[in-house]
Write a structure and sequence with these properties.
The protein is of the alpha+beta class. Helices cover 48% and strands 14% of the residues. Strands 1, 4, 5, 6, 7, 8 and 9 form a 7-stranded antiparallel β-sheet that branches. A two-stranded antiparallel ribbon has the order 2-3. This is BtrH N-terminal domain-containing protein.
Length: 337
């Protein structure tokens, strides 16, 4: 049996930030989950639909692993990523790190993990691995999935080898702090403004504030989009609220990130962004409830209401991101404590 000692496991809501927290705390870097999410410029929006999909998907963050790359860049960390089509080599990459006393991040398909309650294919799931024996691998996942968990080596191998949307080829990664890190306060403005610019200037209409506006129009048709609205609409709402999003399609996490930033930097633009995202988080939870109710009752008026709220959210989040994009032209001061 090989186990990395000194692993600091805490409750976390989102898989990628849960894994990043484990890896960074092992390097002596202790940041809150909202701070990890925000410094990784993690917030986004996508309305995703295609002929191959059974039902549309609303996403609230950047694509899998982009957050990790953003965070490593923001904090000046060395990010070592290994991928391979060979299961044997993929396992060797992971075992070598753990044998050397380092936890390792894995991107895989959660469907094959023994402990996962919801058997849905998702190739963008991320966990931290800190040990293994002849039969099982020892992982850290979100609090919802059990925190410190284990899965069979067979299940882990299947999860890492899976193909499909967002899947990676036996991807494993480590983070190393090389030298003195920049103070997180110095990284807040670049991370926030990068996130704001991407949100305000989406390359296609399915993304950012334009994507939310598009969702507001299309959500009204969702009862006609499915043969089983009692299954698909409540499932879509559940994914928005409980599928590792931290609630409100990641808006709760970003609200808390902006609140933490406002304690470190005195900025009216930060305060404006925080106020608007506090309101937006409440409205996203309302949208999820309306979508679920529409599926359960068959009442199309619920979707009309959800569409109207989404239209308000598009405007509200655009205003929030416009305020936050002005941070780079402002000189925030550090509040006295």
């Amino acid at each position: 049996m090989a186990t990395v000692t000194g692993i600091d496991i805490r409750d976390a809501q989102h898989c990628e930030t849960a894994a990043l927290g484990v890896l960074l705390r092992h390097q002596g870097i202790d940041l809150s989950e909202p701070m990890l999410f925000g410094l990784g410029s993690g917030l986004s929006f996508v309305y995703w639909d295609s002929k191959q999909m059974g039902f549309p998907f609303l996403g609230g963050r950047v694509k899998p692993f982009e957050l990790t790359r953003n965070l490593a860049s923001a904090l000046g960390l060395e990010l070592l990523v290994q991928e391979t089509t060979s299961p044997r080599r993929g396992w060797g990459n992971v075992a070598a790190q753990i044998d050397a006393g380092r936890p390792v991040g894995l991107q895989l398909d959660s469907y094959h993990l023994d402990y996962f309650g919801s058997k849905v294919h998702f190739g963008g799931h991320v966990v931290a691995m800190y040990g293994y024996d002849d039969r099982d691998a020892y992982l850290v996942d979100t609090a919802q999935q059990g925190g410190a968990v284990s899965t069979s080596l067979t299940g882990l191998a299947q999860a890492r080898a899976a193909r499909g949307p967002m899947a990676a080829k036996h991807r494993s990664f480590t983070l190393t702090a090389a030298g003195e890190l920049p103070a997180p306060q110095r990284r807040i403005i670049p991370a926030v403004t990068a996130c704001a610019h991407a949100f305000l200037n989406p390359p296609i209409a399915n993304l950012g504030h334009r994507g939310i506006e598009k969702a507001g129009k299309l959500v009204r048709t969702w009862l006609q989009r499915t043969d089983d609205p009692q299954r698909d609409l409540p499932q879509a709402a559940l994914l928005m609220e409980r599928a590792g999003t931290g609630g409100a399609l990641f808006r709760n996490l970003y609200r808390d990130f902006l609140a933490e930033c406002s304690q470190q930097l005195d900025s009216r633009h930060l305060r404006t962004g925080h106020t608007l995202y506090s309101e937006a988080a409440t409205l996203w939870t309302e949208v999820a409830a309306l979508i679920s109710k529409a599926g359960e009752s068959g009442d199309a008026e619920c979707l009309v209401q959800a569409g109207a709220v989404l239209n308000d959210l598009s405007r509200m989040e655009r205003e929030a991101m416009q305020a936050l994009s002005r941070l780079e032209s402002e000189s925030p001061s550090t509040p006295e404590h």
